[in-house]
Amino acid sequence: MSAVAFPFLRPAPSTVAASPWMMRLDGRGYLTLGGHLDHWDYASDLHLHRRLSLDLPSIAEQVGIAAADLHLRAVVTLGTAGGRLDGTRHIIWAQDVGADSTGHDIALSIQSRDLSRRLSLTTELILRAEPASSGPLSPKRAGMRLWSERNVVELEHGEPRFPIEVISFRKLLPHRPNSALWYLDWSPQDFSRDFTSAARLYINGDNSAFVQRVSEGDELLLRLIMSSIMVQMTRAALNAECFSLDMLENAPGSLGGVIGGWIRQSFPNQALAAVQMLALLDPAAFDGILGALASPAEGDDGNG
Predict the structure, then answer these.
(1) What share of residues in the chain are helix, strand, coil (percent, to 5)?
(2) 193 and 135: one domain?
(3) Out of 115, 183, 270, 293, which could bridge 202 as a Cys pair, Cβ 3.0 to 4.6 Å?
(4) Domain assignment present for 300
(5) How many domains does the chain have?
């Protein structure tokens, strides 16, 4: 095992006590946040809490800066989407740390509609200001990171989903026929966009019976909706010059990558031109084969 040699002094891990993240979803009781968030969806109400306690005298001594001259800032950064790296990141909580503030309760309320695929929380202790005096190996520049911890939580099982929202179509589509049961809001202009942010499915909140069936997870209804969506998006991709099956390998989480996955599963070992020809000459067969992806596999009871 090799040790990491940092370019400046850092405090020992024992000087920072960070409790586990506690999670509350949709008003349920608090639970310890694990590697996967069960029962999460884009309409969930997500709250997180942890306690951060610091031994500032020990931290100051170990980094060679007088305690009265040590100015720190505790920061929590939220990341989401992406592959190995976060697609988006922003600071969601920050608080200055001084000699008179050694304990901090971190409470976060996160909008689930802004999340996709995974959630990462990075807690850091950062030098806030240059100390007036310090040792030769002490951290000296504002922004230097003295301590860091990252927690990653998977939100999705398997293929990414897109957000679903219930809304009045009389408000959403005031100048169009608004008796439709659902409406897919997306654009086929940029297939490189992250799939989960490129499309949103709206359910007509004016039809309470339909909303109830969707909320209850009516299997046949959800299969019909998903089948219709897959056919709509795939047909648009096949007609777009900027779409390529190479996106499945080069950008698997993108709009084009996910649609490319549908095509590969439905029409294995077929060139894109052959799939385009089938969609044009035998639309019923094309729609049926592609729509079958929304059905449970043989031997699956639909609940897996």
Answers:
(1) 30, 30, 40
(2) no
(3) 183
(4) no
(5) 2
Together in a domain, 141 and 182: no
Among 94, 121, 154, which residue terminates a domain?
Answer: 154
Both 137 and 66 in a single domain? yes
Residue 39's region, left for phi above 0, alpha for psi from -120 to 50, else beta, is left
Q: Report the alpha-carbon angle 1-125-86, nearest 5.
A: 75
Same domain, 143 and 192: no
**Does residue 108 sit in the same domain as residue 206?**
no
Query: Are the CB atoms for 43 and 112 separated by under 8 Å?
Result: yes
What are the strands, taking DSSP E only, across 55-117? 72-80, 88-97, 103-111
Q: Which long-range contacts (CB under 8 A, 24 or more apart) does 4-7 make?
A: none
Residue 57 lies in a domain: yes
Q: Tokens in use for 175?
A: 């100048």
Distance CA 105, CA 108 (A): 10
Q: Measure the CA–CA gap between 146 and 124, rounded to whole angstroms.
A: 8
pLDDT digits (tens, 9 = 90+) for 148-160: 998 888 876 555 5
For 221, the 3-state DSSP assignment is helix
Q: Where are the extended beta strands (E) located within 44-144?
A: 45-54, 72-80, 88-97, 103-111, 118-127
Q: Is residue 299 part of a domain?
A: no
Domain residues for the domain of 68 are 13-154
Structure token digits, residue 262: 């549908």
Tell me the CATH number at 25: 2.60.40
Closest CA to 253 of 124, 112, 156, 169: 156
**Which string of b and e fits 144-179 if b means at least 16 CB within 10 Å?**
bebbeeebebebbeeebbbbbebeebeebbeeeeee
The pTM score is 0.55
Name the 3-class secondary structure at 43.
Answer: coil
Reported as a single tens digit per residue, the pLDDT across 243-301 is 988 887 777 778 898 899 899 889 988 899 999 999 999 999 999 999 888 865 443 44
